Amino acid sequence: MIGFVVHYQHQRNNTSKSVFVRQMMNDFDSIETKIHKVEQDIRKNHETIREIKKILRRIAGGDKSGINKLKHLFDREDHEHIQKDKEVVENVLKHELDSVQHAPRAEVLLPDGICPAFKTQAKSDIMIRKVYDTLAFDNIDGGVWKQGWNITYDPKQWDNTEKLQVFVVPHTHNDPGWIKTFVNYYQQQTRSIFENMVEQLELKKEMKLIYAEMSFFSLWWDEISPEKRKRVKTLIEKGQLEIVTGGWVMNDEANAHYFAIIDQLIEGHLWLNGTLGVKPQASWSIDPFGLSPTMAYILKKMGFKDMLIQRVHYSIKKHLAKSKELEFMWRQEWDNTGRTDIFCHMMPFYSYDIPHTCGPDPKVCCQFDFRRLPGLRYSCPWKIAPVPISEDNVASRAETLLDQYRKKAQLYRQNILFVPLGDDFRYLNIFSLLS
């Protein structure tokens, strides 16, 4: 087998590029045709020689010495013939290769729009693909934090000059497709959530809420009055209502084709920009079952500043949490310059609901999910129910909650802690927002 390596350089002139490529392909086709013809001639000659041997053996009529002489003669002739064939092939190849190598060199290589990756190894502190090879992916019971360990902290690490800043942000995750139909989800749950959102955000000027799925939001927008639309725009302008990601849905990343991902992002962003003049800056991916670097790349190309992810395997979360690397710049594996870097916040615990976001102990966090108060529809699986907050218990309850915040803060490098407060189709009624 003969391998050909032809080096080209890049040329901007597309016409010259095409002509040169066609000429090169014709040259290679010519070489291939001639090689094929030589091979056919060689096979034909060998077949002729074998046939002559058979005929001579019959003529010899059993004379072993004569047969041996003929065998010696034809073996020698075969060798000489093969040697000549080899010389013919080498001469043909030398002539054709010389003509190719001395042809005028054009700057060509790849079709327009193709970006070659000459170096495939990114320069990064952590190569997550290699981390997978080091983890056992076992299921060790970590205590109250099942997938982690018992977190401790020094209370003296915070003082009047070094405070822990906690940002508690309500959110609601509204699946366009899950158990109910899209229309039923909207009519039975989502519409009321939007109505309550407007009322409560206007009453509580310090309160904020983040929302992602534009398919529901656009449906509601078409129904509300011009006066309410103006109120919603005011909440967005003030930063009380933040649209995150802004896709038509919160897309799957593990199985979806990149075209489908881009398509639904375009759908949501066209609506947002054309209707509200909004361009989301942060991505919010709390429920997709698996995270793709393709999504991070697309978000970066779209101009996003940062992103949040949740459903990562607990072994990966534990590994990154131990070295306080749950916040990082996500870089593509083929990127050697950092141009694809995007800031990423990874949520540390099992889920994005309230029992798993205030800190490592879900039985404690669940006590602050007041939708689970005794007598209501939901309860805490850990058998410790929330209690209403009063003047008598507010101090002790605050200390209990603060303890969870401080433990969670040990998993990050900064004294700034993000605590999402929400769940699927959350804040369906006024009570849940008030609480």
From TrEMBL:
It is an enzyme of class 3 (hydrolase). It comes from the Eukaryota. The keyword Hydrolase applies. Residues 165-424 form the Glycoside hydrolase family 38 N-terminal domain. Its EC number is 3.2.1.114. Keywords: Glycosidase, Hydrolase. The keyword Hydrolase applies. GO terms for cellular component: Golgi membrane. GO terms for biological process: mannose metabolic process; N-glycan processing. Pfam families: Glyco_hydro_38N. GO terms for molecular function: mannosyl-oligosaccharide 1,3-1,6-alpha-mannosidase activity. PANTHER family: ALPHA-MANNOSIDASE (PTHR11607), LYSOSOMAL ALPHA-MANNOSIDASE (PTHR11607:SF3). This is MAN2. The lineage of its organism: Eukaryota, Metazoa, Spiralia, Lophotrochozoa, Mollusca.
